[in-house]
Write a structure and sequence with these properties.
Length: about 400
């Protein structure tokens, strides 16, 4: 059972280890209305850590649905200048961002897909040059989850409300490494070290490509960019502030060469995309681009995701996650990428992380493209790792080195 003390520890963990709030730094929190109690705790510890101010962007799925139902396409396609200015002001002040997720998976399933697409496109276009602040880790950011009843009922539809909520809460706190009697910050320091050591070995091997196979039918080669860097554990801002952007995190991730993916990949978990859930899908790649695909559910949504812009049918991330990670061991499908991506190896369509290439953080878009990096306004992870997944690393001279056998690291 999740106790008040554990919520307290989680709030401290997010402030101290998640974003690592610095003296005099603005803290921006996005959160759902039903999490107000937890938000107060986070704000309290942020002020205690020296936050200049704490500002909350409140969300509510019912209000969002209303806005889409009654809003015309014209209204939805217009992102006001003040919204841009507000974010710019926060970033100029050196803010850090905490996102507290707890919404119901598929909350926007009934929303008109075209309207959703129009609004997303408008938002990403308007805010395009502000995206690099978090994508390039110029400032600290952290995504963390807390249980909600609406979410719990989707994950455990057969349980009573009370049981479902308790079970989801237990799972979330366990995979976030917070318990009644541990020191979560200590725990996270140790965990970060382990992820860093896996990344270090992958970097030493300096593979040209990886070959993934699984019983689901996946048989895919993912070529990496030259001078790539595997990253695991936390990140560091240009000012030297270490932070953990995802809680939980179990991945070591890298940058695929835009035109270097060949073969077929079968997703091993559903993909939640702007409130819709795409299920049982596969993608076929030729020279990096998705050339064919199918899905048993929400094929139309998958088509929209792939055709969002030029880069959204190419890969931007490849990530290795051991099958025996705590998220995977929980056996729970959270219907939320923050958790589910840490249960299995995944790929992301769209924008890459510039930290995955040497000198990438100071490269222009054109320079990144010249190094073979993909570019897109979106970044969408999907899971394909399985219990029987094998991965071979292939070096420049053709040497093949086993990386995963039966879902876990060999080294
Ligand atoms: Zn990832
Ligand atoms: Zn990702």
């Amino acid at each position: 059972m999740v106790t008040e003390k554990m919520y307290d520890k989680l709030a401290q963990l997010v402030v101290k280890k998640g974003v690592n709030v610095q003296k005099d730094q603005p803290v921006i929190i996005t959160a759902y209305l039903h999490d107000a109690d937890f938000v107060r705790k986070v704000a309290y510890y942020a002020y205690e850590a020296g936050a200049r101010y704490v500002s909350i962007d409140w969300r509510d799925s019912d209000l969002t649905k209303m806005a889409f139902k009654y809003g015309t396409k014209e209204v939805l396609s217009e992102i006001p200048q003040w919204q841009y200015d507000k974010t710019k002001y926060q970033q100029d002040g050196g803010a850090c961002y905490i996102h507290i997720t707890s919404d119901k998976p598929g909350a926007l399933a009934d929303v008109d897909g075209e309207k959703l697409n129009i609004a997303n496109m408008a938002y990403y276009t308007k805010m395009a040059d502000l995206m690099s602040y978090t994508m390039n880790n110029e400032g600290q950011w952290c995504v963390v989850g807390v249980p909600s009843l609406e979410w719990a009922k989707v994950v455990f539809p057969d349980l009573s409300d009370e049981e479902a909520f308790e079970k989801l809460g237990d799972a979330i706190f366990a995979v976030t490494r917070v318990s009644e009697d541990n020191d979560p910050i200590e725990e996270w320091n140790r965990h970060d070290e382990e992820l860093i050591s896996h990344s270090k070995k992958l970097n030493e091997y300096n593979f040209r490509k990886l070959h993934f196979t699984s019983g689901l039918g996946t048989d895919i080669y993912v070529e990496l960019v030259k001078d790539h860097i595997w990253v695991g554990g936390g990140c560091t801002t240009p000012k030297g502030v270490y932070f953990d952007p995802n809680m939980p995190t179990e991945e070591c991730f890298c940058m695929p060469l835009k035109t270097g993916t060949q073969g077929i990949v079968y997703a091993s978990k559903p993909l939640s995309y702007f409130g819709k859930v795409i299920e049982d899908f596969w993608l076929k790649f030729e020279d990096g681009k998705v050339v064919d695909f199918d899905a048993k559910k929400e094929k139309e949504t998958l088509a929209q995701l792939l055709s969002f812009d030029e880069g959204s049918s190419y890969l931007g991330e490849v990530a290795l996650v051991p099958y025996d990670s705590p998220v995977s061991k929980s056996g729970i499908l959270f219907f939320n990428t923050l958790y589910d991506e840490n249960a299995a190896c995944h790929l992301a369509l769209g924008r890459p992380y510039s930290e995955n290439i040497k000198g990438g953080n100071v490269m222009s878009k054109e320079e990144l493209a010249a190094h073979g990096a993909n570019d897109s306004m979106q970044h969408e992870d999907f899971m394909f790792g399985t219990e029987d997944m094998d991965i071979d690393g292939i070096q420049e001279d053709g040497t093949v080195i086993p990386v995963f056998r039966n879902g876990n690291f060999v080294f």
